[in-house]
Amino acid sequence: MKREYITEYYDYMEYEDEFKKIINSDKPINIKVGNLAYYMVSKFPKLPYFWGGGHNLTKNELKGLDRKWGILEPIKDFGNNNYKVGDYYPRSFDCSGFVTWCLVNTNYNLDSYIDKPDIDYSLCSKDFLKLGKVSKISDEDIINNIKMGDLAYMEGHIGIVCDVLYDKEIIKVAHVSYTGGGSNLTTISLITGRVIEDSDCKERIGNTYFTDIILVNY
Q: Which pTM does this prediction carry?
Protein backbone atom coordinates (compact mmCIF):
# COMPACT_ATOMS: atom_id res chain seq x y z
CA MET A 1 0.00 0.00 0.00
CA LYS A 2 1.34 3.41 -0.95
CA ARG A 3 2.23 5.72 1.92
CA GLU A 4 0.46 9.06 2.06
CA TYR A 5 2.52 12.19 1.55
CA ILE A 6 3.14 14.35 4.58
CA THR A 7 0.65 17.21 4.73
CA GLU A 8 0.27 20.25 6.92
CA TYR A 9 -1.70 18.04 9.32
CA TYR A 10 1.30 15.77 9.87
CA ASP A 11 1.74 14.98 13.59
CA TYR A 12 5.44 14.40 14.20
CA MET A 13 4.75 13.27 17.80
CA GLU A 14 3.13 10.12 16.41
CA TYR A 15 6.57 8.98 15.19
CA GLU A 16 8.77 10.40 17.94
CA ASP A 17 9.05 7.23 20.05
CA GLU A 18 10.17 5.01 17.16
CA PHE A 19 12.57 7.70 15.94
CA LYS A 20 14.17 8.00 19.38
CA LYS A 21 14.34 4.23 19.79
CA ILE A 22 16.45 4.00 16.64
CA ILE A 23 18.84 6.88 17.35
CA ASN A 24 19.25 6.10 21.08
CA SER A 25 19.90 2.38 20.64
CA ASP A 26 23.26 0.92 21.62
CA LYS A 27 23.91 -0.36 18.09
CA PRO A 28 26.94 0.83 16.07
CA ILE A 29 26.44 4.10 14.20
CA ASN A 30 26.37 2.44 10.77
CA ILE A 31 23.49 0.19 11.87
CA LYS A 32 21.61 3.17 13.30
CA VAL A 33 22.12 5.10 10.05
CA GLY A 34 20.75 2.18 8.03
CA ASN A 35 17.82 1.62 10.38
CA LEU A 36 16.89 5.30 10.44
CA ALA A 37 17.07 5.58 6.65
CA TYR A 38 14.90 2.46 6.24
CA TYR A 39 12.34 3.72 8.74
CA MET A 40 12.04 7.05 6.96
CA VAL A 41 11.40 5.51 3.53
CA SER A 42 9.15 2.63 4.61
CA LYS A 43 7.25 3.41 7.82
CA PHE A 44 7.22 7.20 7.96
CA PRO A 45 4.77 9.23 5.83
CA LYS A 46 6.22 9.76 2.37
CA LEU A 47 8.57 12.74 2.17
CA PRO A 48 8.24 14.73 -1.06
CA TYR A 49 11.38 15.59 -3.02
CA PHE A 50 12.49 19.17 -2.51
CA TRP A 51 15.66 20.39 -4.26
CA GLY A 52 17.95 22.04 -1.72
CA GLY A 53 15.98 20.61 1.21
CA GLY A 54 18.11 20.00 4.30
CA HIS A 55 20.87 22.38 3.24
CA ASN A 56 22.06 25.65 4.75
CA LEU A 57 21.06 24.49 8.22
CA THR A 58 23.13 24.15 11.37
CA LYS A 59 23.65 20.79 13.01
CA ASN A 60 21.12 21.63 15.72
CA GLU A 61 18.52 22.66 13.14
CA LEU A 62 18.91 19.28 11.43
CA LYS A 63 18.32 17.31 14.64
CA GLY A 64 15.11 15.39 15.15
CA LEU A 65 11.83 15.25 13.29
CA ASP A 66 10.73 18.50 11.69
CA ARG A 67 7.11 19.42 12.36
CA LYS A 68 7.21 21.65 9.26
CA TRP A 69 7.86 18.82 6.79
CA GLY A 70 5.19 18.89 4.11
CA ILE A 71 3.97 22.40 4.88
CA LEU A 72 4.07 24.65 1.83
CA GLU A 73 6.61 27.44 2.20
CA PRO A 74 7.65 30.22 -0.18
CA ILE A 75 11.06 29.96 -1.84
CA LYS A 76 13.03 32.97 -0.67
CA ASP A 77 16.74 32.61 -1.25
CA PHE A 78 17.56 30.41 -4.24
CA GLY A 79 16.29 29.41 -7.62
CA ASN A 80 17.10 26.99 -10.45
CA ASN A 81 15.28 25.47 -13.40
CA ASN A 82 12.63 23.89 -11.17
CA TYR A 83 12.08 26.49 -8.46
CA LYS A 84 11.63 30.25 -8.44
CA VAL A 85 11.66 32.74 -5.61
CA GLY A 86 8.05 33.24 -4.58
CA ASP A 87 6.90 29.74 -5.55
CA TYR A 88 5.45 27.52 -2.83
CA TYR A 89 6.92 24.07 -2.27
CA PRO A 90 6.75 21.56 0.59
CA ARG A 91 9.51 21.67 3.14
CA SER A 92 11.40 18.39 2.85
CA PHE A 93 14.71 16.88 1.61
CA ASP A 94 16.66 16.35 -1.54
CA CYS A 95 18.97 13.31 -1.82
CA SER A 96 22.04 14.72 -0.07
CA GLY A 97 19.94 16.59 2.48
CA PHE A 98 18.35 13.28 3.49
CA VAL A 99 21.71 11.50 3.82
CA THR A 100 23.12 14.40 5.84
CA TRP A 101 20.07 14.36 8.12
CA CYS A 102 20.43 10.60 8.81
CA LEU A 103 24.15 10.95 9.58
CA VAL A 104 23.68 14.00 11.82
CA ASN A 105 20.86 12.40 13.81
CA THR A 106 22.92 9.29 14.54
CA ASN A 107 25.89 11.45 15.61
CA TYR A 108 28.25 10.63 12.77
CA ASN A 109 30.91 13.36 12.82
CA LEU A 110 30.63 15.28 9.56
CA ASP A 111 32.39 18.40 10.85
CA SER A 112 35.79 17.63 9.33
CA TYR A 113 34.20 17.22 5.87
CA ILE A 114 32.41 20.57 5.91
CA ASP A 115 34.08 23.93 5.24
CA LYS A 116 32.14 25.85 7.89
CA PRO A 117 30.36 23.34 10.14
CA ASP A 118 29.16 26.02 12.58
CA ILE A 119 27.24 27.76 9.79
CA ASP A 120 25.63 25.09 7.62
CA TYR A 121 25.71 21.48 6.45
CA SER A 122 25.51 22.13 2.71
CA LEU A 123 26.81 18.86 1.32
CA CYS A 124 26.07 17.88 -2.27
CA SER A 125 26.17 14.28 -3.47
CA LYS A 126 29.82 14.27 -4.60
CA ASP A 127 30.99 15.58 -1.20
CA PHE A 128 30.18 12.20 0.34
CA LEU A 129 32.92 10.59 -1.77
CA LYS A 130 35.32 11.83 0.92
CA LEU A 131 33.76 9.62 3.60
CA GLY A 132 35.42 6.36 2.53
CA LYS A 133 36.65 4.06 -0.20
CA VAL A 134 34.67 4.20 -3.45
CA SER A 135 34.10 1.05 -5.52
CA LYS A 136 31.89 0.10 -8.44
CA ILE A 137 28.64 -1.40 -7.22
CA SER A 138 29.27 -4.73 -8.99
CA ASP A 139 32.94 -5.15 -7.92
CA GLU A 140 33.54 -8.60 -6.43
CA ASP A 141 35.08 -7.13 -3.26
CA ILE A 142 31.92 -5.16 -2.51
CA ILE A 143 29.93 -8.28 -1.65
CA ASN A 144 32.33 -9.10 1.19
CA ASN A 145 32.84 -5.56 2.49
CA ILE A 146 29.57 -3.65 2.13
CA LYS A 147 27.59 -2.93 5.30
CA MET A 148 24.51 -1.09 6.46
CA GLY A 149 25.11 2.64 6.51
CA ASP A 150 27.38 2.64 3.47
CA LEU A 151 26.32 4.99 0.69
CA ALA A 152 25.12 4.23 -2.83
CA TYR A 153 26.28 6.88 -5.29
CA MET A 154 25.85 8.00 -8.86
CA GLU A 155 26.71 11.33 -10.45
CA GLY A 156 24.26 13.81 -8.96
CA HIS A 157 22.55 11.39 -6.56
CA ILE A 158 23.19 9.65 -3.23
CA GLY A 159 21.40 7.16 -0.97
CA ILE A 160 21.95 4.99 2.12
CA VAL A 161 22.39 1.21 2.16
CA CYS A 162 19.77 0.13 4.70
CA ASP A 163 19.92 -3.64 4.21
CA VAL A 164 22.44 -6.12 2.83
CA LEU A 165 21.26 -9.61 1.87
CA TYR A 166 24.61 -11.35 1.46
CA ASP A 167 23.13 -14.70 0.46
CA LYS A 168 21.08 -13.12 -2.34
CA GLU A 169 23.83 -10.62 -3.23
CA ILE A 170 21.46 -7.67 -3.15
CA ILE A 171 21.21 -4.41 -1.23
CA LYS A 172 18.34 -2.11 -0.38
CA VAL A 173 18.97 1.61 -0.72
CA ALA A 174 16.94 4.35 1.00
CA HIS A 175 16.97 7.66 -0.86
CA VAL A 176 14.93 10.73 -1.76
CA SER A 177 14.61 11.25 -5.50
CA TYR A 178 12.83 13.54 -7.92
CA THR A 179 11.89 10.70 -10.29
CA GLY A 180 10.42 8.66 -7.43
CA GLY A 181 8.41 11.59 -6.13
CA GLY A 182 10.27 11.67 -2.83
CA SER A 183 11.44 9.00 -0.39
CA ASN A 184 12.13 5.67 -2.13
CA LEU A 185 13.38 2.16 -1.34
CA THR A 186 15.32 0.59 -4.20
CA THR A 187 16.67 -2.98 -4.35
CA ILE A 188 19.83 -3.49 -6.42
CA SER A 189 21.81 -6.55 -7.51
CA LEU A 190 25.46 -6.51 -6.46
CA ILE A 191 26.25 -8.78 -9.41
CA THR A 192 24.77 -6.77 -12.26
CA GLY A 193 24.28 -3.37 -10.60
CA ARG A 194 20.73 -3.31 -11.93
CA VAL A 195 17.54 -2.43 -10.06
CA ILE A 196 15.46 -5.45 -9.04
CA GLU A 197 12.64 -3.68 -7.21
CA ASP A 198 11.62 -0.11 -6.47
CA SER A 199 8.91 1.18 -4.14
CA ASP A 200 7.91 4.23 -6.18
CA CYS A 201 9.54 4.22 -9.61
CA LYS A 202 8.86 1.05 -11.62
CA GLU A 203 10.68 2.54 -14.62
CA ARG A 204 13.99 1.92 -12.85
CA ILE A 205 13.51 -1.86 -12.68
CA GLY A 206 15.99 -3.70 -14.89
CA ASN A 207 18.12 -0.62 -15.40
CA THR A 208 21.41 0.52 -13.90
CA TYR A 209 20.81 3.28 -11.38
CA PHE A 210 23.37 3.74 -8.59
CA THR A 211 26.86 3.09 -9.99
CA ASP A 212 29.16 3.12 -6.94
CA ILE A 213 29.34 2.24 -3.26
CA ILE A 214 31.07 4.44 -0.70
CA LEU A 215 32.42 2.25 2.10
CA VAL A 216 32.05 4.82 4.87
CA ASN A 217 34.69 5.10 7.58
CA TYR A 218 32.51 4.62 10.64
A: 0.92
